[in-house]
Amino acid sequence: MRNSRSTEDIALGIRRRVFEHAMRNNGGYLSQACSAAEQLAFLYNEALNLGPSTMPMVPEPFGGVPSAENRDYRTGAGYNGPFDAVHDRLFIAPAHYALVAYACLIETGRMAAEGLEMFNRDGSSVEMIGAEHSPGMEVHNGTLGIGLSTGAGLAYGRKRRGETGEVCVFMSDGEVQEGQTWEAVQAAAHHRIDNLWALMDVNRQQCDGAMDSVMEVGDIATKFRDFGAVVAEVDAHDLDALREARTTPHEGRPLIVLAHSSPTQGMDFLMRRFPRLHYVRFKTAEERAEMNEAIAAELGIPPVELEAH
Amino acid sequence: MEMVNRPYAAAFEAHAVANPDVLCLSADLTSSCEIDGFRDRHPEQFLSLGMAEQNMLSFAGGLGLAGYRPFLHSFGVFLYRRPYDQLMASIAYPRRKVRLMGFLPGVTTPGGMTHQAIEDLSVMRTIPNMTVLESGDATEVESIVAAADSVDGPVYCRVLRGSVPRLFDTPLEIGRMRVLSEGRDVLVVTAGITTEEAIRARGALDAAGVSVRHLHLNTLKPFDAAQIVDHASSVRHGVVTLENHLVTGGIGSMVAEALAEAGLGRRLIRLGLQDSYAHGGSRPYLMKYYGMDALTLVRAIERLTGEESGIDEDALGAVRLDAVHSAVKAEAL
To answer: In what order do the strands lie in the sheet with A255-260?
Structure first.
């Protein structure tokens, strides 16, 4: 399904929505929107072959966890389109990007704007850390590092069944600190799983701060190649570069696109917080108001109307 | 007593060949889990995932999403200790039809602490959506394959390998415990390799005039608490559980919970590993050393009845073990 809007426009829309949401809710995952807006917009608007959403525009409330008794259970994957042989499947491996992914669903016409109002509300399926019943999610990835393995298994299975649809995993670079990521790459290469590709947001940030201060990971492109993947490296905010990277031949191997991003792209004001960017909070009303003014100006929108304290 | 060589190998091959959506996954323990022949004869249905269990479990979750029913083969301990997070998130929560075939349960391995799954039952039975099975003889090893694959969700199985005695001539049926004798003095509850020990003890106890009611469990979750309570209420002196596992969280705990919830006051002696790791050694040595053998069971029963039976090692050694035929009334065995 192709959106009539440009991918650049959708990326800007993602930043604006996440910014507005963070302002209204006194904090949020702002830097993830900065680094990943183009990537998610690219995936949903261009790169992936996704059918129209099969789910209601306004997400249904939490319907219970999977159990033998919960016969009506379904995941949020239907927001990415139907499960059939020809369409692609997407896993958002870092479930902490959920807010950004929800914003992207809205911008691409797959979810109503009201969906974001349910974010992190009790009884809602639009959870803060994306659960498998959350819009756009198919599995639980809140425990980082399991996404690529799941994608590899599904891709292997799809290939075995002769399905033409591919499997894409959106990843974060912090996941390379987990051993399982490397197990997944070597297994995908060993079994020649080439209907699998990953787009990794390389923003060099993690919960405790800059990755280099938490745990140095070295040259991940070389490491991925050594483990058997085909690697392309691009500027995450350059859509033409993303388009070209996606076409990199990778027969018999998984493709990993390393999208080098800025965690403050589009919201330079956030550099004042560097390197504590994982979750942006406000200590004072003044701080909140100042950021509201500054970033709204950067995004070309009026400041968000904040309720009185 | 008939001994069957590698009952799993033939049973799995027959089942997998008849079910193309079954995939055989291995983590570098292919011959150790008796699937080397299957790998050689059916390479298109076999996946080597290497010594990387975390990936194997999440990968299996992905295969489940594609509609496959992967059988994961490894030593039991490697299927849940390191990849516990993946077990939860990729398999148990989403109810993937993944069949975890755990070989070398408890002290059936000389491999020591790192290889001995002594808390697998306590871990597995607390996981929502999980079914837990344990095989106690060659017939149950053979039938656990199809039984596990009939479950609409994930299953963990304790599987015996190598030369396995044939005790039963009817297949394992999920949720159906075996009533091996219906005595009135003491209730004995066993599973897996401890059932053979209890049958041996029973032979000597019968001769000594102690009437034992003996239940063999092959389905540990779902657990049939009502039936346990029924049987416990029909014996005079109390209950003994004997398990190849820690007594905490395993069968001893399950029975204790059942009795307590029913408000049935019966003395309970829980035999098995008592809040202790084991070390490496032969199975008979470990069962004796850690109190999981027939003689330990006899002594526990004596504590419940308050009478010495006079049974010693020699008396137990002299007991002839026969197969349990369904046609024969359990009482007569």
So the answer is: A89-92, A167-172, A196-202, A255-260, A230-235
Fold of B178-326: Rossmann fold (3.40.50)
**For the segment A179-189, what is each residue's pLDDT rounded down to a tens digit?**
999 999 999 99
For residue range B147-168, what is the model confidence (pLDDT) as tens digits? 999 999 999 999 999 999 999 9
Measured CA to CA, the distance from residue B82 to residue B33 in angstroms comes to: 19
Superfamily of segment(s) B8-165 = Thiamin diphosphate (ThDP)-binding fold, Pyr/PP domains (3.40.50.970)
B45 touches chain A (CB under 8 A): no
Domains of chain A: 7-56+75-299 (3.40.50.970)
CA A292 – CA A97 distance, rounded (Å): 21
Q: Which residues of B carry out catalysis? A: 53
CB atoms within 10 A of CB B135: 28
| Residue B95 forms contact with A (CB below 8 Å) | yes
- Is B51 an 8 Å CB contact of chain A? no
| Per-residue pLDDT tens digits for A259-271 | 999 999 999 999 9
Q: Compute the distance between CA of residue B94 and CA of residue A74 in angstroms, rounded to an integer.
A: 10
- Contacts with B57 from chain A: Cβ below 8 Å: 149
